[in-house]
TrEMBL record:
Protein name: Heavy metal-associated domain-containing protein
HMA domain: residues covered: 1-67
Classification via InterPro entries: Heavy-metal-associated_CS, HMA_dom, HMA_dom_sf
Pfam family membership, one: HMA
Source organism of this protein record: Leuconostoc falkenbergense
Length: 72
């Protein structure tokens, strides 16, 4: 499955690296890309291992606001 999370504004490139690392290290995540200018996180994941809610919690646990989540 794929998830797109719309975040609050990202303020620095190190935010991008921090989010990508945390999400990619989460079990069941196959790939992740953070779009800095769009403040979005796109990831592919195995729904039998993790969920969209789990991934959103990873991001909010880092202190970032997840404003919207779309799952495809």
């Amino acid at each position: 499955m794929k998830i797109i999370m719309q975040l609050g504004t990202l303020t620095c490139p190190s935010c991008l690296t921090k989010i990508e690392k945390a999400v990619s290290n989460h079990e069941g995540v196959e790939n992740v890309k953070v779009l800095f200018n769009a403040s979005k996180v796109k990831a592919s994941f195995d729904p039998e291992v993790t969920s969209a809610d789990d991934l959103a919690q990873v991001v909010t646990g880092l202190g970032y606001e997840v404003e919207n989540v779309k799952v495809k």
